[in-house]
């Protein structure tokens, strides 16, 4: 089954070029099944790129998905046109009385700020609190993982001596856990962040469990034991060239930026990097949709309640 996306969303054209089936609103209304209602709170500055990356991963499933894009009303994006935001995005006030099977909260380039210094922190806290009763399972990515762990469990973030930047190997700690079903014992994933989470702070919290870790990049995959929340500290959704674009952008700005680790062939930024994490990314999202959402969420979506 395909993902149902808003008509005209740029990601639709990209999916067609990649032979990935997406469905219009009209066709979806003629299918006699209940699609999973998935919302995406997109905090990334490059909205269209992130939309496309996430639609690609959510489409790799036998489940029909009804996608809703959410925005922070207290923040105006600088890199995406008002026309795009007004056409395809909803404010939280428009959906706060609704229920969703799943919610994805993306990363954001604000790691160097304390949480309460982020200008939309109070609105994000309201959404995270709402998610406990109106969303069955929430997937938090990168900075959102740090924000969610802090808000829900009091796990602090810590500054890093230098940016965690590159593609790193990770080791599965609980191979029988459903979220890592089908994973290789060692798998790659990109990271791009200035802050991290201490392993001991995760292990000290009785309600969460560490499922995958990197010797270089630290904690990667953390789950609530009731599976209502999942935290991913990296960016498995990234395209092959996303880290390259970040690197060249910072070089152009004259910033002191190192080459992303384990990324460019022979550490030569003129060479095309290979995407060696694509299989893991598709499997992660498919497992989340299947085991955390589809097999556990109530058929009557209005029955979703707090854990």
Quick summary:
The protein is an alpha/beta fold. 30% of the residues lie in helices and 25% in strands.
Account of the protein in words:
The protein is of the alpha/beta class. The chain has one domain (3-156, 193-238, 289-303): Class I glutamine amidotransferase (GATase) domain (Rossmann fold), CATH 3.40.50. It contains 10 helices and 12 strands. Strands 1, 2, 3, 4, 5, 6, 7, 8, 9, 10, 11 and 12 form a 12-stranded mixed beta sheet that branches. The protein is globular. The two termini are 29 Å apart.
Descriptive keywords:
307 residues; 10 helices; Rossmann fold; alpha/beta; 25% strand; globular; twelve-stranded mixed beta sheet
What topology emerges from the helices and strands here?
Blueprint: E1 3-4, H1 10-17, E2 22-23, H2 25-28, E3 36-41, H3 47-58, E4 65-71, H4 82-88, E5 89-91, H5 92-95, E6 100-105, H6 121-134, E7 135-141, H7 143-153, E8 158-172, E9 186-196, H8 199-203, E10 208-214, E11 218-224, E12 229-232, H9 242-252, H10 278-294
Parallel strand pairs: 1-2, 1-4, 3-4, 3-6, 4-5, 6-7, 7-12
Antiparallel strand pairs: 8-9, 8-10, 10-11, 11-12
Mean pLDDT: 91
Order of SSEs, N→C?
A: EHEHEHEHEHEHEHEEHEEEHH
Principal-axis shape: globular
Residue share in β-strands: 25-35%
Distance between termini? 29 Å
Residues in helices, as a percent range: 25-40%
CATH topology: Rossmann fold
The CATH homology group name: Class I glutamine amidotransferase (GATase) domain
Radius of gyration: 19 Å
**Largest sheet data:** 12 strands, mixed
CATH class: Alpha Beta
Secondary structural class = alpha/beta
Low-confidence stretches: 26-32
